[in-house]
């Protein structure tokens, strides 16, 4: 790979996602964040969870489970999104593994109006 002179561009952003594919987690990023890794260099997360050892840092996909099928990446992305939403909003209505959460039926809710 060679750098192409004059091709550098700057894009202002608040957040950048790095999709590294089968290369594994970028060691410099993992080290800079201080995220714990397992013996195979995967980002360590709780079983069936996406939060890392660093508060507000979440991991999903190849960096968490190693190279795998795209369907696992999609599933992990959805699960991580639900966990991040829950962390940010103290609750989530996003679907995650196990299906869509059912909503409370209005028929089972008591409503009282007072004038």
Entry summary:
The protein has helices at 27-33, 62-65, 70-89. The chain is mostly helical and 115 residues long.
Describe what you observe in this structure.
It is a single chain. This protein is mainly alpha-helical. It has a domain at 21-95: FAD/NAD(P)-binding domain, CATH 3.50.50.60. It contains three helices and no strands. The mean pLDDT is 81.
Give the low-confidence spans: none
CATH architectural designation of the domain at 21-95: 3-Layer(bba) Sandwich
Counted beta strands: 0
Shape: globular
Write the layout of secondary structure elements.
Elements: H1 27-33, H2 62-65, H3 70-89
Give descriptors for this structure.
115 residues; mainly alpha; globular
């Amino acid at each position: 790979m060679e750098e192409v002179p004059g091709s550098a561009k700057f894009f202002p952003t608040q957040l950048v996602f790095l999709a590294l594919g089968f290369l594994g987690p970028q060691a410099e990023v993992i080290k800079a964040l201080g995220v714990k890794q397992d013996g195979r260099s995967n980002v360590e997360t709780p079983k069936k969870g996406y939060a890392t050892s660093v508060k507000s840092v979440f991991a999903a996909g190849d960096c968490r489970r190693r190279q795998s099928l795209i369907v696992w990446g999609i599933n992990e992305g959805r699960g991580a999104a639900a966990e991040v939403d829950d962390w940010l909003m103290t609750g989530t209505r996003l679907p995650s593994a196990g299906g869509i959460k059912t909503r409370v039926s209005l028929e089972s809710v008591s409503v009282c109006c007072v004038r």
